[in-house]
Amino acid sequence: MAISYNRLWKLLIDRNMGKGQLRKVAELSPNTLTKMRKDQLVSMESLCRICDTLHVSLEEIVEYTPESKEG
Fold first, then answer.
1. Which residues of 19-45 are buried (b: 16+ CB within 10 A; e: fewer)?
2. C-alpha distances in angstroms, 52 versus 5, 17, 27, 61, 65?
3. What is the residue-wise DSSP string for 43-70?
């Protein structure tokens, strides 16, 4: 499973918002942002806070690519 938050980072650039500013406004822990920078899984609660803060849908901040099942 591959998770990418590149859509979120691009959105923040478009809105002239830094990652630290997002963390404060969305009330995220520093650990959550660190995990996101490493494209690791974070809680759905954290993702929902980001969506609510930025007024976007989940698809606009996260990209999921399933692992290929070659048999």
1. eeebbeebebeeebbebbeeeeebeee
2. 16, 15, 11, 12, 23
3. -HHHHHHHHHHHT--GGGT-EEEPPP--
Predicted TM-score (pTM) of this structure: 0.88
Amino acid at 13: I
What tens-digit pLDDT sequence spans the chain (71 residues)? 699 999 999 999 999 999 999 999 999 999 999 999 999 999 999 999 999 999 999 999 999 988 776 65
Q: Beta partners for 65?
A: 2
